[in-house]
Structure formats: structure tokens, C-alpha cells
Amino acid sequence: MAKDPAFLFYTGDFSTGTQFLTDEQVGKYIRLLMAQHQHGRLSEKQVIFICKSIDNEIMFKFKKDEFGFYYNERLESEVFKRKAFSESRSNNKKGKTKEVINISKSYDNHMEDINKDKNIVKKEKKVKYFEPPSFEDFDAYFKEKGYGIISKKVFDYYSTADWHDSQGNKVKNWKQKVQGVWFKEENKKPQFNNQQQPTIKTHEFNEQ
Fold first, then answer.
1. Which of 46, 72, 92, 133 is the most exposed place for a label (fewest CB within 10 A)?
2. Could you say which of 76, 93, 126 is where a domain stops?
3. Is 115 found in the same domain as 31?
4. Is 5 within a domain?
5. What is the pLDDT of residue 105?
6. Residues 22 and 114 in one domain
């Protein structure tokens, strides 16, 4: 079969991936991709011939195999996928589809696993670390809203529980949490026990 003269070029991905490269670096990067497509993995001598030197920002887009050859993993995957598709079309005409279909499915499953891993990484990056407030910030917020009388007891309640609520769930947004649980009209005024000391009804700490 003749060498495939083309490969899929995703302009959006390319634009995003080269956003912080200079025009000269982008030109060298494209030439390296074309060279890999035409000649396979590239030696260091071939890379230097195109780039005049080893540009780390450009070579960040490439991996190096055990033999010291450079290759762009995305390009290699696209070339393989296109080749598998072309072979499947050709074999369809010959009635030999089973093996190529299995190859295509295997490739698709592999790419699906990679995409899942990427999505997991993206989700992990979005997880925000919860930093407990200082009592000063906590108290100031309660006083601002008119609930300063209960700030100390509520703060002690959550800090003692390592910032978990009564159900054992981690507090992610303390302002949102106290608004929904503690900012009630009866908590604006002190409750008095027999010794005339301000206190809070114990049922409040059940977070009803």
C-alpha cells in the first residue's frame, strides 16, 4: 500500500497547544511533524537539521524512545488510526473485515481509556483545597450578619470535628454552611440558663 499522503490536523488543538510559542517555533514544530509523518521517528541529527538546535519548548511536544528517536505521540496515534481505517475500507471490498475491525476496536478502546484518564485528571485539577477560616474571620462574618453571640460555640463545634458536619460530611464552603444551618432568627438573641449566662439550644448542634 502506498504511503498515506496526509494526516488529520486538528486546528483548535494545535492553536491551543502552540499559543505561547513564537512564530519561528511554530514553523519548526510543523516541519518536525511533517518530517515524522514522512520518515517516521526522528533522530537527534534530523531534529537539529530542522531546528538548528534542540529547542526545549518545541521538544516538550515530543517523546524520546529507548533508541533515542523523537516522536509526537498524538501524530503517531492519528497516523495509526487513519491507517487502520483505510485498511478496513480496503478489506471490506475483499471481504476481509474481521481482523481490521478488531484492530480498530482495540485502538478505539485504548483511546477511550486515555480520554477517561485525561477526564479524571481534569476533574482532580478542579478539586479545591478547603482551608479552614481563622476564628477572627469566622467571628467577623457572624458579627456582620448579626449572629456574633454564637460564633465561638459554632466555631468550636466545627473545628473540633475537623470541619465535618453532624452527618460526617466535609465542610467545603463554611460561609454557605453556616448560612443554611445557623443563621436563624432565634440565634440573634442570647438564650439564658439558670446562671444567666448566654447559651445555645443544644438541638442546634444536630444541624436540623
1. 92
2. 126
3. yes
4. no
5. 60
6. yes
SS (H, E, C) the chain: CCCCCCCCCCHHHHHHHCCCCCHHHHHHHHHHHHHHHHHCCECHHHHHHHHCCCCHHHHCCCEECCCCCEECHHHHHHHHHHHHHHHHHHHHHHCCCHHHHHHHHHHHHHHHHHHHHHHHHHHHHHCCCCCCCCHHHHHHHHHHHCCHHHHHHHHHHHHHCCCECCCCCECCCHHHHHHHHCCCHHHHCCEECCCCCEECCHHHHHCC
Confidence check: pLDDT of 4 > 60 = yes
Listed residues 126, 154, 182: the one ending a domain: 126
Domain limits at 173? 135-206
The larger pLDDT score, comparing residue 7 to residue 44, is at: 44
